[in-house]
Task: structure prediction
Amino acid sequence: MASNTGDEIEVRELAANSIELIREIDRSEHIDVLYTVDDGRLHSERVEIEVPPWDPEGDGDHSSARRITEFEPIVTGGAALLGAFIDDLFAGIAIVDPSFEEGTAWFAFLHVSRVYRRRGVASALWDAGVKIAADAGASSMYVSATPSGSAVGFYTSHGCRLAERPHPELFAMEPEDIHLTCPVT
Ligand SMILES: CC(C)(COP(=O)(O)OP(=O)(O)OC[C@H]1O[C@@H](n2cnc3c(N)ncnc32)[C@H](O)[C@@H]1OP(=O)(O)O)[C@@H](O)C(=O)NCCC(=O)NCCS
Result:
């Protein structure tokens, strides 16, 4: 599959072994807003957090190797691996499992390299993921979002809202995340 959003971002569905592209992502970010959920509502607070790039060496908690080990089984298990390219340069990556549960897809992974942010790359990946989910018959998308202003700002700008009932396993894995759902149309 290949699709174009705008005139320069191309989203391609990639073979499972292209998950190695995660090593090329610069996930570094200055976070100035952090979200929490209290009494079923989103609350934001100002913070100053510097998130470094993933460690290119070894397989520690913050390494790119760990991310690959973590997400490879999801892709080989049937989730779609999407890459976004600008002028053929790799800009971002997403993983969407269209058949996570009956009627529900899971947007499992989304990263855009720092220099390519705020140019619509994640939106192009999201649109492609939503289409895959809709084609598979899903009516909603589940997202366990990093609680940063950028991630929550991104998903809420695409119609995601707080999940009324967070998914028990995904919540147990990432209790500090913001658990969201979004209708798939
Ligand atoms: C979150 C992330 C994927 C967004 O990628 P992106 O390509 O910059 O997003 P887009 O350009 O498609 O943004 C679309 C909209 O999302 C919202 N958004 C994006 N970045 C935002 C930010 N830093 N703060 C608030 N809202 C933001 C805006 O509404 C934006 O529209 P606008 O640029 O017209 O204002 C990117 O910042 C990223 O990779 N962050 C680090 C990893 C991460 O947090 N991933 C999500 C894990 S669940």
Summary: Residues 121-135 form the longest helix (15 residues).
